[in-house]
Amino acid sequence: VQLQASGGGLVQAGGSLRLACVVSGVIFRNRSMGWYRQAPGKQREFVAGISNSGVSTNYADSVKGRFTVSRDNAKNTVYLQMNSLKPEDTAVYYCNSDNRNIRYLRRTDFASWGQGTQITVSS
Q1: Backbone angles phi, psi at 116, to 5 degrees
Q2: pLDDT tens digits, one per residue of 32-73
Q3: What mean pLDDT, rounded, does the chain reach?
Q4: What phi, psi does 12 have (nearest 5°)?
Q5: 33 vs 111: CA distance, rounded Å
Q6: 35: nearest Cα among 10, 9, 14, 6
């Protein structure tokens, strides 16, 4: 599977960004998709997940109510709308996929990772 995240940048606290991740090499509509992030000096962590149909979503407590995950199966793309950004959201953001239920996205031991996109939130 190939995963290419984009849309990162520098934003002030309280601002918004929308990330996109284009997926290839797998049947996208069969995959649950997740967003993850890794801040400097910290372990990678789960941020948000969406089922293959897009009906079910879940979020880390730290982003609930501020971030929204969505997908477009026709474009093989998953999105992460990030609002009310905080300095603690600063990290490299990645996406990844699983061919099982959405609950299996709450992990970081994937075999491989694609290129992430840097988000920097200034105070």
Answers
A1: -90, 180
A2: 999 999 999 999 999 999 999 999 999 999 999 999 999 999
A3: 97
A4: -80, 155
A5: 15
A6: 6
Question: How many CA atoms lie less than 13 Å away from 86 in the CB half-sphere?
Answer: 9
Bridge partners of 119, per DSSP, are: 9, 91
Pairing type for strands 2-6 and 17-24 reads antiparallel
Average pLDDT over residues 9-20: 98
Q: Which residues, including other chains, have CB under 8 Å from residue 4's CB and lie 6 or more apart?
A: 21, 22, 23, 114, 115
* Confidence (pLDDT) at 81: 98
Based on DSSP, count helices (H) and strands (E) in the chain, helices before strands: 0, 10
Is residue 5 within 8 Å of residue 95, measured between CB atoms?
A: yes
Strand pairing of 77-82 and 17-24? antiparallel
